[in-house]
Amino acid sequence: MATRQLALRDRLTGRSAELALLIQEFAAARSGRRRAVLVRGPAGVGKSALLDAVIDAASQHNVTVLHAVCEGAGPHGVLRQLFRTRPRGHTGASEGAPVHLEELRALLEVAAAEECDGGGGVAGSAHPPPAGHMAVSLAVHRVCLRMMARRPLVLVVDDVHHCDSESWRALNFLLHRVRRGPLLLLVAGRDRPGGENVPDCLFRTTVRPGPLRETHVAQLVQDVLDGAPDDEFVRTCAQVSGGNPGLLLRILDALRRAEVRPTAAEAARIADIDPEALRESVAARMADLSAEARDVAAAVAVVGLERPEIIGPLIRVPPPRTRAAVEALRERALLAPDRLGFAHAAVRRAVAAEVPMPDSEGLLARAALLMSDARMPVRTVADHLILLSRPDRAWMADTLREAGAEALRQGEPRAAARYLRHLVDHAATVMPGADPAPVRGELAAALARFDPAGALTELRAALDSRPAPCDQAQVALQYGEIALAVGGTPDAADVLVTALDAVRAECPATARATELATLLESTLLLVGLGARAASSSARARIADIGDRPPAVDESGGGAHGGAHRALAARTWLAALAPHSAASATEPVRSVLADPEWTDAESCTVGLALLLADETDPAHAVWDRTLARSRERGDDWTHHQALSCKALGLLWTGALDEAIAAAQHAVHIAEQAPWRRTTVLPFGVLALTLSVCGHHERADAVMRREGLLEGRAADLADTSRGWSLPALYRAQSAWRRGAPAESLDLLLALGRELRAGGAGNPLYSPWWEYALPLLAVQGRAAEAGELLDEYTESSIRWGTPRALGHSLIARARTVPPETAVGLLTEAVQVLQAAPDPIHRSRGAYLLGRALLRTGDVRAARKQLEWAAASAERCGARDAAAAAGRLLAVAGGRVRRPAAGTSAGLLTRAERRTVELAARGLTNRQIAEALFVAVRTVETHLTHAYRKLGVGNRKELLRQSAWWRGEDDQDVQTADGPSPVLPGTPV
């Protein structure tokens, strides 16, 4: 259809009720009852299509139809068009009609000449019409009576808002003289056409076609674009066009020429496909608005608020007339019918361009003041203040700060940051002479929840302004808290040391100063311990604080949670040193349920509990943090807690759930502005996939983020989980057949961990990986020293997991006959640890040692258990290695699981996911499985949550992962690959 002319049926889509009413009036006129019908509405609403439908219906009966379109042809132009053209409809023989028509036509010519000579008047004006006008009216009456005597007469006048007053006066005369008779006068015009020329009171029936409903919009979209449209596409079409058929068809024709398909992805193009059409439509709909209504439209377009009680005083229009103007705008489909505001942003822009306001800045400021005086919600007022390019009143500063606090309480940190950023950027004008540092602190608190790097920048700017020592301590504390949340920054420890020295030296010895010093020391311990980038002076101060007894009463509270932070710091210090696991975690067990813990402290304590095999309390801490971060809209903390939880699930052998949690954290990070500043979720996901045997996929995750190359070194200084990329890079190098490179990476990681005070053998298993590589290179003495060091640390820490690790590590350095005893003890010790993967690995190594010593029956028993346990966990490399040795020992090899999701999804969910991954729609899946569409939606929702994906697109992208396709060759269990990774910080 090239500039396709739509059939009348298409143009009448959604107009069945209006057409039925017109046909009813036509039937009444045919039966001898005079009817006058007005079709009124904005341009493009379908008035002409309705008139054409009536004309087509009339042509099928014995009636006479005279049709005219008002085009501004001068005086009596409509009458000349009506009675000069050949009648539409039946035109049977008539003896008298032609004579009267000729007389009327001659009379019209004379009247037109008189009008040109003397100047005709307008109905209702001070100038009376020429005398010939009455003769014209009488002649029209006589001609119409002659026509009506033979058959019913239908007079159709389109665009009557352009009708000349002389023609309308004659038609008005006809209506008053013909009280009964087969006459239908059908006219169509825009709202309020011609002022008083066409008053509603003259018409028995007025038809007002409204905007099309979405069902009718969908029908037109399908007809024009030849395809079933998406709901979002239809909704956007309805909003942009305002349901106006003329504009909609023009937009759809442009979309068709641009070969746009009616999908949700293409909906954004609708508003921009034909801006000229939208502008013309808006201009036509506003053409006959009163000046007050246009002012209301302009004000609403500028301030974006449809409230008569505000708009009226804003433009000095009484509220009743303002409400009437709002209703007029809604009738023209400029304002949405079901909400406050314009139907679409594109309509708002078109209205603003049609009726621009000369002082939009002043209008916004007055609107905000009126809203504030009316006690409207503070965030509504602030939304207008941030549109101001230069706020300059003190009350505006108070409003923006209050709105920021309100947004934070409502869990919308991005909105809070918007308000506070606007205040900080214009602090010189809106709060002259005041210190902006407190506002920067509030802005940093908001940014910390979704853009920690931006928060640290704001706080660094506040520190550079050299505040007083106590104020500097407060800013430094906030800096340290955010650094703690993100896992440290290169200068966080030095910032805290500088602030601590200033407090000690310059602040008076008060309770407040003591509390600040305690908080600074505790935060310094949490940030500095295990950090890679702390300076030598900061490390010395950390060591000094660690050697001194606690400076606070650990049973009490304290401002800003000082006691909790001290507890968290001491717990983390004891866990990394390490001391005994029981003594390290005992002080915090009794206060874990205290709601005063901050999220950063909770995550740190959770990691310490995980190291101590206290997995249930650790997960309870992270679950509470997840719930609070979800309520606040804190994506950063949420993805950190999810990553920590995924790590805990990995430690306990729940690999399916670990992948799901890690994938969810990765999804959050990929959508966030701080994606390039986090490594924790990517490292956890890659290591979990590696344990599951998906090495190529794990490499793809790390390579996509640049964590196999240079970015790992850049980010490791400032991100929680910095040890994970280094550990994974060592594993990857070993799998690539580069053991020397792998050993170098492992030893470098060990040096950095020792320098940061991380001596816990479970913190990172780098030393387990390094031992066999050192032995291969003939560096037995170095391997022995490393083994002795971490065996001593394992005994000191004292958990079954740590002891089992040290026994397994030592067994790999001795002959098989000696190793059997060590590995038997390791397997027994690991029975008490929540670590089925390492328990399986110990059984595998024990079975191999027994096989080498000739005890085939005992070896087979251990290898069967190892293969079954590894398979249940999803550790595919370990299960495959145990299966190969089991086959050598004469045992029966178990069939491997179908994929990592086998133990996570129900049977119905797996079937639904498999069909969705093939590209089937929800309805097609329902038909294939003989279930309801709602059931399919429920299964997919559960599967998305379990698999850690956000939508069908991600499911399609990840489907091969979850189905276990493209399996890679497994690695032997001797090397680093199947060994469980350690805990990141």
TrEMBL record:
SUPFAM superfamilies: C-terminal effector domain of the bipartite response regulators (SSF46894), P-loop containing nucleoside triphosphate hydrolases (SSF52540), TPR-like (SSF48452). This is AAA family ATPase. It comes from Streptomyces heilongjiangensis. Gene3D superfamilies: P-loop containing nucleotide triphosphate hydrolases, Winged helix-like DNA-binding domain superfamily/Winged helix DNA-binding domain. Residues 966-985 are annotated as: Disordered. Residues 898-964 form the HTH luxR-type domain. Keywords: ATP-binding, Nucleotide-binding. InterPro entries: AAA_16, P-loop_NTPase, Sig_transdc_resp-reg_C-effctor, TPR-like_helical_dom_sf, Tscrpt_reg_LuxR_C, WH-like_DNA-bd_sf.
